[in-house]
Amino acid sequence: MSRHSRTGAGDGIRGTGPEDGAGAGQYADTPDMALAGLLRRDVTTSFAAARELRRRHLPAATAYAGVCTLTPGSARLLAAQAFARAAQEAKRGIEPPGAWRHRLLLLVARAAAAWTADERAVRLDRDVVPSDPSATRPPQLLEAVRRLPLRTQAVLWYAAVDEEPDAATGVYVGVGAVDVAQLRGTAFGALRSAFLLSRLEAHGGPDCRGYLRLLENAVLPQGPRYSADLEDHLAVCACCGDSRAELLRLNSTPRAVLADGLLPWAGDRYALAPRPAPAAQPAPPAGPATAGSGLAALPRTARG
């Protein structure tokens, strides 16, 4: 486990620092994807949009970076580099397939993988980040989640993993709080179906598809339905047995299982780490420090 202190204002891996409440108040209700598009605009607009994205998502990135590193300073540096990469991608028009925050955390992992190749490796928690990240298997729920509509993907991350309020999730995704509640109500059923389908396509035998509906019924949260035919199949099929076990885990501890299945390393630690205090409502910035892509909103360590 990361050796960071998890207490104290600004020092816990999910604590918000004094800058996290500063940003562009006029964009407080703007969806993430629209903010990302504003990074391609003039310097004043891109600066303000970057500040708002940073206010919303950098604490979570620092939390995951804290799981991967040994000190709070290293966590802040790693998270800042990932945010800089995310802002650069947005400026080039590269859109994440789901939640902007989830993409940011994947970029934290990518930056950590790059650190393993040079002197920065000593900053990493080697119990979390492997010495050869290229051997890491893709997160096992990622393929299934990518099959879902973009809004459903984003709601799963913000509402289920990060447990954001419906109002905040709605702002990030660009829907109303009522729509978030509806999406959250159907998202897990859609995920279960997508997971089973992707798992059976990749690892199942010729007979497995015929048990898809029975498997879905066997993991219903409101009450699994028993099938003797399915039990006979599970006795000889490791793929379907493992799939059922994973979905039962998802029913039992959805937050930790989702995070662990969508991040390359220690997602469950990220999900269970202390949550940050809500960032203050942003105040208008004094003005951009430099011209460019909105990266003036970043710490100096992330700009180089």
UniProtKB/TrEMBL annotation:
Question: What is the name listed in the Swiss-Prot or TrEMBL entry for this protein?
Answer: Ricin-type beta-trefoil lectin domain protein
Q: Where is the composition biased (Pro residues)?
A: 275-287
Provide the species name.
Streptomyces triticagri
Q: Where is this region: Disordered?
A: 1-27, 275-304
Single Gene Ontology MF annotation: carbohydrate binding
Which segments show compositional bias classed as Low complexity? Answer: 288-304
Organism lineage reads as: Bacteria, Bacillati, Actinomycetota, Actinomycetes, Kitasatosporales
Provide the alphabetized UniProt keywords. Lectin
Instruction: Write out the biased-composition intervals (Gly residues).
Output: 9-24
